[in-house]
Amino acid sequence: MKNKAYTYDEGMAILDRIIEGETLAEAKEDKTDWHSIFNPTPEEVAKIEQEIADRELAEFNTTHNKNYKRLPKNKCPKCSGNGRIDQYYYISGGVCFRCGGSGKVY
How far is the first Cα of the chain from the last one, in angstroms, to the nearest whole number? Predict the structure, then answer.
């Protein structure tokens, strides 16, 4: 049997198990189910991806809302805040091009 190289943490875990009364052979046995840790089920992967997406969306919304609130909102001088100009109904339904139909300029 080939000798296995252990990390510091693995070596300390083996030492702790020997101190608790296990033999060296018993302590070296890996009792961790690494397969289940590193191979999550599709449901677990979906849950993790959803949590990441939720965090990213919350961060985006927080940043976006802070920046959006700082913008000055004034009535559009071209359409007087209506978003439409009646005499230009035949061009894009009269939508004001300056404010894009919102009635506010930033």
Answer: 74
Whole-angstrom Cα distance, residue 102 to residue 106? 11
Residues of the chain by 3-state class (helix, strand, coil), percent to 5: 55, 5, 40
Rounded-to-integer distance, Cα 51 and Cα 59, Å: 12
The burial class, CB within 10 Å (0-12 / 13-18 / 19+), for 91 is exposed
Q: Is the pTM of this model over 0.85?
A: no
Which residue's entry shows tokens 């939720």? 54
CB atoms < 10 A from the CB of 79, how many? 22
Q: Which amino acid is at 68?
A: Y
pLDDT tens per residue across span 13-53: 878 878 887 777 776 666 665 555 567 788 888 888 899 88
Instruction: Tell me phi and psi for residue 10, to 5 degrees.
Output: -65, -40
* CB distance 75 to 81 below 8 Å: yes
DSSP summary character for residue 5: P
